[in-house]
Amino acid sequence: MSLAEDRAQVFAANRAVGRIEVTAEYGRGITSRKRLSESGGLRMHFPGARKRELEAVLINTAGGVAGGDRFDLDIAAGAQARLAVFTAAAEKVYRSLGPISRIGIKLSAGAGASLAWLPQETILFDGAGLERTIDVDLAADARLVFAEAVVFGRTGMGEAVKHGLLRDRWRVRRGGALVFAESVRLDGSVAAKLAAAAVANGGAAIATVLIVPGSAETIEPLRAPRPPFRGEVGTSAWNGIAVARLCALDGAALRYDLTKVLAALRGGKLPHCWFH
Fold first, then answer.
1. Domain count, the chain
2. What CA–CA distance (Å, rounded) separates 136 from 181?
3. In a domain, 29, yes or no
4. Cα(267)–Cα(246) distance, rounded to whole angstroms?
5. Domain encompassing residue 131
6. 10: burial class by Cβ within 10 Å (0-12, 13-18, 19+)?
7. Model pTM?
């Protein structure tokens, strides 16, 4: 075995691999955990009292995602259940020496269920490589509030992502039919691409909020007169789906805007971890 092959094997053996499987069910007026499987460095906590909506907080004990790491999540809300999933902190994806990080997320909601996927930001470091897939399977009458935010560099510390890789693929199905599909690829000179007016116009932080079912009335609270956002926020609705797109110069401005958007859409219901 060559020295390079030996180093590659040592590197692979030290990569973090984690998996979470969670199923929530409804009964007697509350939503509770039915099944929980944890492996690797991923953990799920359920703070607060038992109530109609179950709050679940995802924790990555590895402290971030490094090149070659692999994490998989399978989260399901059973019939009539209400489940809201948050993260304890922003997820950091560190610079890679070559191998990319992979995250696979599967979300599902049964008949009459409500699922809110509301993690804090994903922060990419310069030179990071991330490939992520998110697949959502909803019953015909299930409800979804979905938010994902990406910040390119720790902007509060003056960092920027000059080069890296982000491949992000989302698919949402409702009643078995594909209703939303989106793929994003930023490769190579990330900073130069974000600087383009048609991409982020120099912004370093982006987010999407997706509401199913959604309509113009759903996003009307975001259009009413209110204190101005710190970045750009655009909304649209079509075919039973409502979407808000956010873009900001830095992570702090994006978080400010995103909390305003989510609080308006969820009636002010956000966990304390979102305001740390």
1. 1
2. 10
3. no
4. 19
5. 60-275
6. exposed
7. 0.92
